[in-house]
Design a protein that fits this description.
By secondary structure, the chain is an all-alpha fold. The protein has eleven helices and two strands; from the N terminus they run αααααααββαααα. The protein has one domain. Helix 2 packs across helix 9, helix 7 packs across helix 8 and helix 7 packs across helix 11. About 5% of the residues have low confidence.
Length: 235
Amino acid sequence: MCKKLTAAVLALLLGGCASAPNDPNNDPFESTNRAIFALDIKIDHMMLRRTAVAYNALVPEGARDGVHNFLGNLNEPVVFANDVLQGEGARAGQSAERFFVNSTLGLGGFLDIASDMGVSPQSEDFGQTLGTWGVGEGPYLVLPFLGPDPPRDAFGQVVDIGLDPTTYVPVKQHIWWMLGRKYVTILDARARNLDTLDDIERSSLDYYATTRSLYRQFRDNEIRNGRPPPAPPDD
């Protein structure tokens, strides 16, 4: 959950507020969602946040940056595939260039040489692809340990596993590789944004409603790839 909320907060802080989705109140399971959200927050406070604080204290910044870059490079093939499925040729070329440059000159992705060359990272997943195809998010859902995950985005995560080349690498105990990678990705996001998330939680009168709003705005902005929202039709 922290990874998703962190991404949403940072995207809105850095890129400006996105337009709200057409149906911001589509939360028919709100009472259940709130209970799961409260559980997720307890788990975060008890385990993940403490681990993130220790990670920042014990691991040098350069090493943390290397881990962050490596994780991002691993995901570039998934970004590339979704760019292609969305018909975004220029963005697909950008993703391919990033993967090639960082996998070679960047020592397997631990150095982000592509960004130094002006080729910026981007975020794409199959949930976004479905959104560009006109598929709605469905009812808002919060899942245990995963946070906000409406049906469209949950299904998209499953498809992204199939689009990830590492899924097909014959490694013993592959499930532990996948779980370990997921956990380190979440830890990286939490550790890099401790103060941001703490400030959002402290300043929110209703942390659940704030998270729901941020998530929906963020996903709407991602689906549009940062482009302005379409103008409302004339009456």
